[in-house]
Specification:
Shape: globular
Radius of gyration: 19 Å
CATH class: Alpha Beta
Distance between the termini: 16 Å
Oligomer: single chain
Strand content: 15-25%
Mean pLDDT: 94
Number of helices: 10
Strand order of the largest sheet: 1-2-3-4-7-10-11-14
Length: about 350
């Protein structure tokens, strides 16, 4: 019988952070690749609206250090948190098909091999040459009980011009770049016994500043697992993005789950006003996605990886690192998971 894990992406290994997540029921984590303990006075706040992007980073690097990964992994495990996932990260040379991508792909393959040796099961990535983050807006005090929400509206960005640093990239070109990437790295992932999990383009618009978003619809997500037929070629399932697209998250869980192509999961909810183009991110229990039905679907498909709440609205009096928001989300997830597994 499968056992869905309650998970969380955690960026630092301070004692306060790891004790907190262990105490509220987190079981597995997506871990950073470097050992980082922030000074309490310099703890970075989680921004409600992500920063504007000027384009993807250039070269891949620096290469992962195996001893450092083991050190990070051991630190999490000492608090009862099991690291199974990490972020691979891809250079602009890879996503945009530029000179230097073969060298970057060699380093990517090396990182995949190291991840397998230290026991990581899933490496996530986003094949996004330019993210439409300029379309987000802050809804301070506009959520339930005055919570801080954020929304996305394509009208804010649909007429923005191409960036000189990126240029225009067609849908056909983006699929050529994805195919080149997968054909290069999936054999290495198979040997390392690691799943590579592609996150959908988020926000899931068709094009932004002349750059196509190939994983912005469900046809694209289906296509990517068909390009290279391998158990190592998976998707990073996101209940929020799936709902943003106007798709039925439960139906899509069954589609990818029945094919054993779900590597890991972002578990969040949204209120959709115009599919793909306009929506509001919400608490788990007040969006358009039936989160309990999603957990039932994951369970029915035998998914035994982690669920990560990913985003949280701003709650009054919360800490700078939004611990109250995470505790509320994870408490709901623990309850729903336990109810499903007990057959309630």
């Amino acid at each position: 019988m499968s056992h869905i894990k309650i998970g969380k992406g955690i960026g630092n290994v301070s004692e306060e952070t790891l004790r907190f997540y262990s105490q509220i029921g987190v079981e597995e984590v997506s871990m950073p690749t470097r050992y980082h303990v922030p000074a309490t006075d310099f703890l970075a706040p989680r921004p409600l609206v992500p920063p504007t992007q000027s384009g993807p980073k250039g070269d891949q690097g620096p290469p992962w250090d195996e001893a450092e990964l083991i050190r990070v992994k051991d630190r999490f495990e000492s608090f009862g948190l099991i690291p199974t996932v990490s972020s691979l990260g891809l250079s602009g040379n890879i996503t945009m098909g530029k000179e230097g991508r073969d060298k970057d792909l060699e380093m990517t393959e090396r990182n995949i091999t190291i991840a397998g040796r230290v026991g990581l099961e899933v490496l996530t990535y986003s094949f996004t040459a330019l993210r439409p983050s300029e379309g987000y807006g802050a809804l301070y005090g506009k959520g339930r009980g005055g919570a801080d929400y954020r929304d996305f509206d394509y009208d804010r960005i649909k007429d923005l011009p191409a960036l000189d640093s990126v240029g225009e990239i067609s849908l056909e070109e983006m699929w050529e770049h994805i195919t080149y990437f997968l054909e290069a790295v999936i054999p290495t992932a198979e040997k390392a016994n690691v799943k590579l999990a592609a996150h959908p383009n988020d926000p899931p618009v068709p094009v932004f500043r002349g750059v196509a978003q190939p994983l912005g619809d469900m046809d694209g997500m289906k296509k990517i697992i068909e390009l290279v037929d391998s158990p190592s070629n998976c998707i990073f399932f996101d209940t929020g993005v799936t709902t943003e697209k106007g798709d039925d998250a439960v139906e899509m869980i069954h589609y990818f789950g029945s094919r054993n192509r779900i590597g890991t999961v972002h578990f969040r909810n949204v209120q959709v006003q115009v599919p793909r183009f306009k929506y509001i991110e919400t608490f788990h229990d007040c969006g358009d996605c039936d989160m309990f039905a999603c957990i039932k679907a994951f369970h029915e498909e035998g998914y035994d990886g982690l669920l990560d709440p990913d985003h949280t609205p701003g709650i009054a009096g919360d800490t700078v690192d939004t611990k109250a928001g995470w505790a509320f989300a994870i408490g709901q997830m623990v309850a729903m998971r336990n109810a499903v597994e007990k057959g309630w």
